[in-house]
Amino acid sequence: MTTIVANRRCMAADQRVTDGSRIFRTRKLRRIGEAVIGAAGTGPAIAKFLTWLEAGQQDTPPKFAKDDELEAIVLTPAGLFVYDTACVCEEVLDEFYAVGSGSTAALGAMHMGADPVRAVEIAALVDNSTGGPIDMLRL
User: Fold this and answer.
1) Model-level pTM?
2) Residue 3 CB neighbour total at 10 angstroms
3) What is the average per-residue pLDDT within 105-113?
4) 3-131 CATH pick, 3.40.720.10, 3.20.20.140, 3.40.50.720, 3.60.20.10
């Protein structure tokens, strides 16, 4: 899948995408208004979610296919929030959070003092779905 990590100041993500036996790179972070968004999961689910966010969440949430997967972090001046395919916003009260297949390793790294970029680097050491260059966006 991927690893995306955010604290209250910035967000970092790897660029690796795995699709069956194929691997390619893409950007997983996006800025919408003042928010920084990182999304992990299946391509169609991510696209539907980002379109919904860009529309200002005015419409009803997107309809996801049964096999769609989505884990997203939204970092705003008001705080840190997570979403899944239910598109229900859940506030994260902790100082940092991570999603994706390398999230557990990244959270452990953050607890040991790593910044988000270093946490993704550490996750890439133990998660074969995390890799490639790392992108970072500041709030």
Assistant:
1) 0.94
2) 34
3) 98
4) 3.60.20.10
